Amino acid sequence: MDQKKKDSIEKAIAALKGSSDLIEYEEKAKFQNCRIIYMKTLADSTVIQNSVLPSLKQEQWYTIAQLKEIIKVENMIITNDTDVIKEKILTGYIMISLHENPLPCLLINANKTAARAISLPEVEFSVVGPKEAFVESLETNLNLIRKRIPIPEFQVKELEVGDLSKTKVAVLYIEGITNEENVKTITQRIKDIQFDQISDSSFISQMIADNHLSPFPQLLDTERPDRVASVLSEGKVAVIVDGSPHILLGPTTLIEFFSAFEDYFLNWIISSFFRLIRVFAVGFSILATPVYVAVLTYHYELIPRELLNTLVASRQNIPIPPILEALFLELTIELLREAGARLPTKVGQTIGIVGGIVIGTASVEAGITSNILLIIVALAALASFTTPVYVMGNTIRLLRFPFLLFAQWIGLLGIVYCFCILLTHLLRLTSLGRPFLEPIFPPRTADMKDAFIRLPFSLLSKRPLELRTNNSVRFSSRKARENKDIDE
């Protein structure tokens, strides 16, 4: 064998020997002596003991090609490439080479995957519907989706991102339905990522977003397999990141962040009512405190006389202006939220409940804040929790502070001005090149059937226009109306 190739493989193995979990030994088989190398923390020892060693010692073989035929393990590779050898050993492969000729060598997949069991959804929990959530294993997550879409058109494109982490990323779509432009756009953006370590799907979401300066998430993330299967059938693209229990979906719209997937498990009238409550709650959460500050600072003549007496009585001993009073309570709420989120579950719940009651009561009795503003801030915080998607809830929490500052600046006119800035930003925002405010702008009445309200399934015969799908028809509405019950 070429001495240069032999030196290269020895150099590659030497680079791995600095790690104490590298196993290397000579196996004296019946017909050939061979060299076995693997990482004990990555390779499954049962594959070695049950499949590899019995074949080496009992079967008749003389070459690497013959060895490959007798070992009954999937995903085996014969290669001369030292870079491939290093990469595969570091992903759980076993390397076997002849004693005299290190190259070519046989790489046997014995990857040992440690993953938690499938559990209940924590962020998108629903009373009705499936109770499965994604885990950190890419293969397990693909299994959860494939069993819901058992068709050959369901395609998976696997990529690798991260110079150090070598993270596996899978792009999912249904061929014949999904617009190829969306698939090409998201695939190309993932390939263009230049970063050394990718730990979670949130990394990918930030790096492939259309506008990196926007506080709004431009890809929807979910932990529910049923939701992923549903939106794939609509023509969207999904992105799975190995090691992350959340999957990205795109292109998406602003309205989708206020729609829980449980809405489809309930009667359409009830689910539409809940959606309208969420939209109202978001508006109330953003505007309630700024309107209080604007009215008490500039427009107190708009307050009815009966309510004005109550407000005056609640603020007669407050030494600070409404803006400082509001900022104090808003920041206190945010501190309680962060403390509750970072502490262990039982301690966090106690901090949130006891801390809110104690601080709120003490601040009113001390004359720092009024009891009316305390009620408004508490209701606004409660309303912000109705957002089904956690990342959008964080954005709603942030938006209250610019509105507060504009309200202090020029009152209600400042709130309107801040709203115009926000609306302009949303009008310019896109998700994978698609309008983020659709179906509001551009106005598409056909997509309004599943926006602020959800109409019955019999009326949802077309896929969303914003996705520009290759096949826009989900089912024939005419045939659905013709299929009457046998008794009718």
TrEMBL record:
Subcellular localization: Cell membrane; Membrane
Membrane topology annotation: Multi-pass membrane protein
Organism this protein belongs to: Metabacillus fastidiosus
Transmembrane segments: 276-298, 348-366, 372-391, 403-427
Broad class of where this protein is predominantly found: membrane
InterPro entries according to UniProt: Spore_Ger, UPF0353/GerABKA_families
Domain of life, per lineage: Bacteria
UniProt entry keywords in alphabetical sequence: Membrane, Transmembrane, Transmembrane helix
Name used for this protein in its record: Spore germination protein
Taxonomic lineage of the native organism: Bacteria, Bacillati, Bacillota, Bacilli, Bacillales
Assigned protein family: Belongs to the GerABKA family.
